[in-house]
Write a structure and sequence with these properties.
Elements: H1 6-17, H2 23-30, H3 34-47, E1 66-74, H4 79-91, E2 95-100, E3 107-113, H5 116-128, E4 133-140
Helix pairs in contact: 2-3
């Protein structure tokens, strides 16, 4: 992908704040004509800078108030050993984010769940049934101090 210019960056920043903004209002805010702005947004989508447009929901309002961050360690680290786990993670709706990381742990997951019963069932599915998981540690979120979706621009 080529370099993003100041206008591209401004468009992306505004769309991250409010993807519902009308094209005319977006164009006005970034100093373009509506047609030029529409072309820029289309180009940013084609380049993959905008992967998708979503609605950000309040977990408590939709019945998924329990958030957990889980660190885990694999026994064997080769890609072929992790594929079954990665496939399960991608299929489970409760797993909202998943990362293979460097450092003291192999992976980090962020889960959004209804309750502790769902958490227990997910642990059995993801960790207890996987011989390649050495250990996992769960951190239940008790307070949200920042919850920004997107990329810092």
């Amino acid at each position: 992908m080529g370099e993003l210019d100041r206008i591209d960056t401004n468009i992306l920043r505004i769309l991250q704040e409010n993807a519902d903004i009308a094209n005319a209002a977006l164009a006005d805010r970034v100093g373009l004509s509506p047609s030029a702005c529409l072309r820029r947004v289309a180009k940013l989508r084609a380049l993959g800078a905008i992967r998708k447009t979503i609605a950000v929901l309040d977990p408590a309002v939709v019945g998924r108030p329990l958030t957990a961050v889980i660190n885990l360690e694999f026994h064997r680290h080769g890609n072929r050993y992790r594929q079954g786990f990665i496939k399960k993670v991608r299929e489970l709706a409760a797993v909202r984010q998943g990362y293979i990381v460097t450092g003291e742990v192999t992976g980090v997951l962020v889960l959004s769940m209804r309750d502790m019963a769902e958490y227990t069932a997910l642990c059995e599915t993801l960790f207890d049934a996987d011989d390649n998981i050495v250990w996992y540690r769960t951190y239940i979120a008790t307070e949200i101090i920042k919850d920004e979706i997107g990329v810092a621009l």
